[in-house]
Amino acid sequence: MEEKKHAPVGVFDSGVGGLTVAREIMRQLPGENVVYFGDTARVPYGSKSKNNIIRYSRQIIRFLRTKDVKAIVIACNTASALALETVQQETDIPVIGVIEPGARAAVRETRNGCIGVAGTEATIRSETYTKVIKRLRPDAQVIGKACPLFVPLVEEGFAKHHITEEVIDIYLSQMKETDIDTMILGCTHYPLLRSRIIRYFGEKVHIVNPAYETAMDLKAVLEEKGLLNDSEKTGEYSFYVSDAAEKFTEFAGSILPYDVAATRQINIEEY
Ligand code: DGL
Questions:
Q1: Which of 51, 146, 183, 243 is 20 to 30 A removed from 112 (C-alpha atoms)?
Q2: For position 1, what pLDDT does the model report?
Q3: How many structural domains does the chain have?
Q4: Is 220 found in the same domain as 205?
Q5: Where, by residue number, is the active site (predicted)?
Q6: What is the pTM (predicted TM-score) of this model?
Q7: pLDDT, tens digit, for every residue of 151-174?
Q8: CA 28 to chain centroid
Q9: Same domain, yes or no: 185 and 235
Q10: How far from the centroid of its chain's Cα atoms is residue 118's Cα?
Q11: Are residues 164 and 112 in the same domain?
């Protein structure tokens, strides 16, 4: 068991966005070793079918298991919405998604039960957030909105560009007219637009980033299974992608509080 405690946690996303979840895991669980995989060759997942998202998730889990991970965090809302249930049933280590933690945080924060969800097309179409929120609070009203352009804007480094303000307005102006008092950033890239979105909605709307609660869930699961790495030493982090390793390294350096030395590229179709 002692040896298993030191095994890494596997974290994956369709690309760089999941680093916002990895960052939170590193902050809350500094002793954990982390193996991160970003599927940069096949991003975006938000426009893909359920079958493909399940296939991709299975391949990534097979890859992460070659690194002897003790648990897996699906740091991608789209994969959490469409593949989590399936892969959880097939995997004998804990697999955690971001939807349940995000929904739980929103239900805790809302006063009037009116919750907005911004996400990819696939996440919003799946209505997974709506189902989980309603299970936790049956009288909740959930308003979803797909915001697909947010992803390339973030990836192209346009988070602070004035054009992003316009796109936020185009996607979210209708939501702003509703009674929502809480909004979930239901896509890993959106927390990188958080300050803009907070400014757009003003004080009346509480913005939820599921990453924080996801890291807490991971901690609880590892504790329960006796797998928490309580080492005093800061964990080791390694990064893998399916394409464009250099671009990922550069981007990761802007999200994580330290410089990423190297990212390795693998052929995920082999798994
Ligand atoms: N990582 C995805 C998510 O959180 C967003 C990007 C994509 O469409 O792949 O849903």
A1: 146
A2: 62
A3: 2
A4: no
A5: 76 (proton donor/acceptor), 187 (proton donor/acceptor)
A6: 0.96
A7: 999 988 899 999 999 999 999 999
A8: 15
A9: no
A10: 13
A11: yes
